[in-house]
Amino acid sequence: MAKTPPLKIALLACTAIAALSTTACSAQPPSPAPNHAPSSERPSVAAAQAAAGNALQPGEYITEKGWGRLLFDTQNGTLMFSLESTSGGDMCLLDGAIQGDRGIAKGETGEPSCSVKFTANTRGIEVTAATPTECKAFCGYNASFEAPYLRVAEGCGRDDLDRTRAAFQRFYDAKNYKAALSTLSPVLARCLPTLEWEEEGAIRNDLAITQYKNGLYAQCLGTLDQYAGDADLDDDAVTDNWPPMLADRYLAIVRAARTNISLCRKGAAKR
Fold first, then answer.
1. How many CB atoms lie under 10 A from the CB of residue 232?
2. Could you say which of 128, 166, 220, 264 is the most buried, measured as most Cβ atoms within 10 Å of its Cβ?
3. How far apart are CA 209 and CA 220, in angstroms?
């Protein structure tokens, strides 16, 4: 099967544009911890925040093109956050408790904390650094985490995608190509806005070769259309505009697409 292998994305890779950026992260010192009533006497965190006009809700949020991931969850009555992003070949890693609309990521001993502002909107969460200088300690030199984070569509969270792709692979390996197709086809339509570029490439190649196996040659070519131009170039030309740290990874996508496009063109020509 000519395709890129499924990718287990634990930390998100950057887009090509983000990979070239030199932005650093941002933040702010912690505010005093509030005095909480006993858990049996206070409302749920989500309900209390909604009542206060702050609609931060537990869940998973991902940037467009998947280079940043934000998780909110409730632990012992306190809303917590964890945030990881990859851009410019560097990463940001932050986690901590949320106080009002601010997340407080505590630094190592003696280092200042990073304060992150979360602003809920109809699409998800706008994330900004309240204290940019302090937050630089939580990011690599070229990395940033500031961006809109979208609430993920149903079935498009990282764990959901892992399960879907594993199920697809089982069907494909068993040569049950119709079941493999029906398992993977909805992913692009539903999850495309928050797919990381490398993950998108792997899914497109998996879907295209499965469409080929089902005799859907035109659909296969449509799935890989965005790589068709690069697939017609030689390898050196493909990677000319890509930074060295990403060039080989993108080339792997294009090489698989080149093979799959060729198969589907030949299949279509026989009809």
1. 12
2. 220
3. 7
The span from the CA of 230 to the CA of 234, in Å, is 8
The most confident of the ranges 27-31, 43-47, 139-143, 248-252 is 248-252
The packing angle between helices 158-173 and 177-191, to 10°, is: 160
Of residues 114 and 16, more confidently modeled: 114
Domain boundaries, the chain: 16-151, 158-269
Burial (CB count <10 Å: 0-12, 13-18, 19+), residue 58: middle
Confidence (pTM): 0.75
The DSSP annotation for 15-45 comes to PHHHHT--------PPPPPPPPPPTTTS--H
Residue 22 reports pLDDT greater than 50: no
pLDDT score for 3 = 46
pLDDT recorded at residue 103? 96
DSSP character for 12? P
Options 1.25.40, 3.40.630, 3.40.1350, 3.40.50; which CATH number does 158-269 get?
1.25.40
Three-state SS at 5: coil
Mean pLDDT of 182-195: 95
